[in-house]
Amino acid sequence: MRVYLPSTLPALARVVAAGELGPAPLTGFAVTPALIEWYASGDTEELEYVALTEAARASLRLLAAGPTAGDGEGAARRVVLAADVPDETVKAGGGLEERARVRVVEPVPLKLLAAVHVDDPAAVPDVEAAIAVLPAADGGDDDARFVVDGVEDHELLWYATQEIPDLLT
Length: 169
Description:
single chain, alpha+beta, two-stranded antiparallel sheet, 40% helix, globular, DUF6912
């Protein structure tokens, strides 16, 4: 099953060093039966895009939760790791508002990564602005919500797994 795992650039560097993403359980996003039922008119590609978008939102929250100072230029970039994991390691994990959320119950070896999706460096100012207003957006501030939603105007770039070392330098 293809699972989209939210991350950050510093966390990706740690995954590379460790050889796996863990410890389990890991929060991810995937094309779940609940997502298929909710988005009945979508094809597989559209459903995977929804799961990827949800993972990108979770990546923004990871960035907001941890310091990025000292992590290097462009650290405030959303990162989503796409992995093909065995179906039996994925458990449904979301409610009605989180139809794509899953739990991966085992660490994900680096060899199971299929691709990495990362913000272009040009998105950094918008990502930083969204991080700054995320608490206000969560509190119902419509202007802050507009800023947070605006980050989704930036499409994540696709990187093959062999490009990870270049991405981290």
